Amino acid sequence: MEPVSYVFRVDSSGKIGSGHLMRCLTLARALRDVGALCSFICRALEGNLNRLVVAEGFSLNELAQSGAGARTTYENEPYHSSWREVDWEVDAAETLNVLSALKPQWLVVDHYGLWYDWQVAVGSGCKIMVIDDLADRNHHCDLLLDQNLGSDILRYESLIPSDCTTLFGPDYALLRPEFKEYREASLAR
Questions:
Q1: What residues form DSSP beta bridges with 5?
Q2: Which of 10, 57, 66, 127 has a CA positioned 20 to 30 A from the CA of residue 163?
Q3: pTM of the full structure
């Protein structure tokens, strides 16, 4: 049986930070441990930590950094859409180009600047998992994870398809193994 393949679409930068990338790396490590194939699509934004993907032994497909003024602002885009630094259509086309070569079963999206329109444009050949915690935009996905305390379907019911599987709350938190290792000592202190 062939291993299940996952592609992660996530960015990091001085503006975005590293949290999205770190939680995707945590999930990718866990998936690799059970035999899955994982690769990443990340834009080469200023201050990125894309090197961590390669250091962890995952394949990295790096999208070019945009030039100044390369992005158009559209009326209905989410607040964080500027984090992409390119038009969503450009990002979708570049991502789809990589996906068509990799042919994954799953695309994992952890990016506040990517939403329903982008997900529809890239998701015809695979299932989509979205990692989110804002509940501020529509999603076209098969699985949605919001690992925060207090998250629930009421925040997302009008934002996701009715047949979307949901994982809510800290029971599904994507924590690196070292946090588990230090838990007992931390609690004892």
A1: 37
A2: 10
A3: 0.91
DSSP-derived secondary structure letter, 154: H
Q: Are 100 and 128 in contact (CB under 8 A)?
A: no
Query: 24 φ, ψ to 5°?
Result: -70, -40
Q: What is the pLDDT of residues 1-50, one digit of tens each?
A: 899 999 999 999 999 999 999 999 999 999 999 999 999 999 999 999 99
Rg of the Cα trace of the chain? 17
Tokens for 167? 């994982």
In the numeric block, the tokens 């930068």 are attached to 13
Contacts of 126 (CB under 8 A, 6+ apart): 7, 99, 103, 104, 105, 106, 107
Find residue 108's DSSP bridge partners: 8, 129
Nearest Cα to 20, choosing from 100, 120, 113, 91? 113
Q: What is the pLDDT of residues 58-82, one digit of tens each?
A: 999 999 987 555 556 666 777 777 7
Helices (H), 17-135: 19-33, 51-55, 88-102, 116-122
